[in-house]
Amino acid sequence: MPPFSTPSETKALLATVEQTLAAHHMTAPGDRVLVGVSGGPDSMALLHLLSRLAPDLKIRLGVAHLNHCLRGASADRDAEVVRQAAEALHYPFHITRSRVLKVKEKLGLSLEEAARRIRYAFFRKTMSNAGYNKLALGHQSNDNAEQMLMALLRGAGPRGLSGINPVRQACIIRPLINTSRSQIENFVAQAGIACVLDASNNDLRFVRNRIRHHLLPLMASDYNPRIEANLNQLADVMRTEEDWIEGITDAEYKKALLTRVKGTIVLSAEAFSQTHPALARRLVRKALADLTGTLRRITFAHVQSVLRLLTDGCGVKELHLPGGIRARRADDRLTLIMAGSCCRSGVESAVERGSDSPTVISTPFPATVKIKAMGIGLRFSTCQPNPLPRWTEVDRNQAHFDLGRIALPLTVRPAIPGDRFTPLGAGGSQKLKKFFIDHRIPRQARAMAPVLMDRQRIIWLVGHRIDDHVKVTTATTQVLRVEFFLLDTR
Q1: Nearest to residue 131, comparing CAs of 61, 29, 84, 83?
Q2: Is 359-486 the same fold as 8-235?
Q3: Whole-angstrom distance, CA of residue 165 vs CA of residue 180
């Protein structure tokens, strides 16, 4: 174990971490804690501080490092620094490599989101395989202040303004959340801890970096020198009040809930009629989270659209939300359905009947086809082959085909068990089921994936991948461009 200095700053830092661990009940005797270590100052400081505290806390530690394969030799150097630290401290070391860029392209995610998903998947797998029950991460108070400003800039509500939670899902802990970046940097310097610096942290193409290097310093120098402390205080206030309000929402949600089966939630429309708008919005969000397990793609505008279903006159109204969610108001009920669950749930909508029948696409192009039975639309147009973006850069809801390779007419239908196609870039034929599994496409999304066919084969698993047989090549003379969209059937 490397020597630790004992000046007052280091003692104060240790005391702050101890207080944070105790205040949020982050660990208990016997816990096995996996420490996520990138090699930067924050995570290296976390590892060494927990190492100092582990005997008194009666916890055991392990070290996990993910090589994102984004920075070549620099990434390999980071991994070696972390390995040496784990070895010096005599802790188990868990490491893996992942091609984040490939995942980014396959799933159509931002680089940051792809890296985040891969990182947490690696942590979860390591915890499960090696018997860890806690995951410690190195987020600190400056990170929290930056997160708050990002939330403000995107117009987040109270939950978003709660900042970085010290404890999430009862197993992810952040012991440094009440310490500052300057405290951590002083600590690693005094203790002689080897760290690496990620050059991407200075890349101003990323919003967080612009906030860190430009916006926060400007606010501190020209408006309020305590801006970071105040943002952290606001996060704490909002988090505490969010917990309290969530209890009220839970009670009202139970009153409003009429039916809850897999893929379907039915709420009393009357429960919303005399409810304060703030609570009404929370009830909708609660129901959507209950239905799907996430609110990642649900915005304020989506919630408001659902509430408008309850106030826009009489009769049956329906709209489509991200992730294959359908919201339907009929009489005194608000029904939320995951696409693909409609026919199994006992609350089948009229627009769903007959959706298994193929729809023939008539030519000539351009044409726009709306298939109400499936809740989708397709726009068809033709263009010249140059210039076209690479297929990996095209939005997932668009596709380009060599029109000369297509055997017209085209048809659209839902995917059915046993369907096969040859995904572009995959090198061979495979079942749709295997494609879904290989690309980690949720079951709910699989259920709503239509297929576009010509007379011979599936040419597009809509929203995902075209078939290799109809791709645009250097020999292509005319391109068929197809754009997929969801219908709003209000």
Answers
A1: 61
A2: no
A3: 16
Burial class for 398, CB neighbours closer than 10 Å (0-12, 13-18, 19+) = middle
Give the mean model confidence (pLDDT) for residues 17-30.
Answer: 96
Q: At what angle do helices 8-23 and 41-57 cross, to 10 degrees?
A: 70
Residue 172, token pair as written in the block: 């992810």
Q: Which of 370, 343, 341 is nearest to 354 (CA)?
A: 343
Output the CA–CA distances (angstroms, integers) from residue 394 to 114, 381, 397, 463, 465, in the order listed: 17, 16, 8, 11, 10
Q: Report how far residue 167's alpha carbon sits from residue 175's, in angstroms, rounded to the nearest whole number.
A: 9
Q: Which CATH architecture has domain 8-235?
A: 3-Layer(aba) Sandwich (3.40)
Single-letter amino acid code for the residue at 99: R
Which pLDDT does position 20 carry in this prediction?
Answer: 97
CA angle in degrees (0–180, nearest 5) for 342-107-319: 30
Calpha distance 146→239 (Å, rounded): 16
CA distance 400 to 385: 9
**Residue 1 — very low, low, confident or very high, per pLDDT cuts 50/70/90?**
very low
Task: Label residue 487 exposed, middle or buried (CB < 10 Å: 0-12, 13-18, 19+).
Answer: middle
Q: How far apart are CA 343 and CA 345, in angstroms?
A: 6
8 A C-beta contact, residue 275 and residue 283: yes
Report pLDDT digits (tens) over 117-142.
889 889 999 999 999 999 999 999 99
The pLDDT, as a whole number, for residue 357 is 61
- The pLDDT of residue 376: 78
Domain ranges of the chain: 8-235, 262-351, 359-486
Decide if 452 contacts 371 (C-beta within 8 A). no
More confident call, 114 vs 44: 44
* For range 303-307, the mean pLDDT: 89
* DSSP letter string, 141-204: HHHHHHHHHHHHHTT--TTGGG-S-SEETTTEE-TTTTS-HHHHHHHHHHHT------GGGG-T
DSSP, res 133: -
Question: Average pLDDT over the chain, rounded to whole?
Answer: 85
pTM of this structure: 0.64
Helices (H) and strands (E) in the chain, counts: 16, 22
Largest CA distance in the chain: 80
Question: Residues near 156 by Cβ (< 8 Å), separated by ≥ 6?
Answer: none
Determine the CATH number of domain 262-351.
3.30.465.60
Cis (ω within 30 of 0) for the bond into 92? no
Between 392 and 35, the more confident residue is: 35
What is the CATH architecture assignment of 359-486? 3-Layer(bba) Sandwich (3.50)
Higher pLDDT, 200 or 240: 240
Q: Which two tokens stand for residue 29?
A: 């005797």
